[in-house]
Write a structure and sequence with these properties.
By secondary structure, the protein is mainly alpha-helical. It contains six helices and no strands. Helix 1 (about 5-25) packs antiparallel against helix 2 (about 30-55) and helix 2 packs antiparallel against helix 3.
Length: about 180
């Protein structure tokens, strides 16, 4: 059975990012700024994974898994942004929440081997991210039962919470590389 090289794995995930970019261009303008941020974060993670490839296979695997998890967040986020009805939107945001869980686990694994003070700081930051994620999940649960105007307001709150979570997660990731 042939093995996949690091370059092949990076190329495949690069194609997936290109596909997200194409979907974003075809989609509506409302999602454009969030998707541009998502794509920027993905390109940074891609560069980090490429750099880790020179540090050795263990470093690469760790960064690549984090990169893949961030890609899944972006895919779910785009699906939510492009959803054409409430049910699809709620399902996509639910998938996004699960993707964030995986991403936070990867972040935590990355920071587990740090010195005690840095590990404590990263644990605190990741705990804050999880708290923000849980608030978003509560807002989604409330939105599922909302109707009419209340739904529109809930959707706006969810969008703001998603933006906030994304920005904070990217800050934490950049801080603890």
């Amino acid at each position: 059975m042939p093995t996949t090289t690091i370059e092949e794995r990076l190329a495949e995930i690069g194609r997936q990012i290109d596909g997200l970019e194409a979907k974003a261009r075809a989609g509506g303008g409302e999602a454009r700024s969030r998707i541009q941020r998502e794509l920027g974060a993905l390109r940074q993670q891609e560069a980090s994974a490429r750099a880790a490839a020179h540090e050795g296979p263990d470093a690469f695997e760790e960064r690549f898994e984090q990169f893949e998890a961030r890609l899944h967040v972006a895919q779910s986020s785009l699906a939510a942004d492009l959803a054409d009805n409430r049910k699809k939107f709620a399902e996509a945001v639910e998938n996004e929440l699960h993707s964030w869980d995986t991403y936070f686990e990867r972040l935590q694994a990355q920071t587990a081997m740090r010195a005690a003070s840095a590990r404590e700081q990263s644990e605190t930051a990741i705990s804050d991210l999880r708290r923000r994620r849980n608030i978003l999940a509560e807002q989604l649960a409330d939105a599922r039962t909302a109707s009419g105007e209340a739904w529109d307001e809930q959707k706006q709150r969810i969008a703001a919470a998603r933006d906030d979570l994304e920005r904070k997660a990217d800050e934490v990731s950049a801080r603890f590389k």
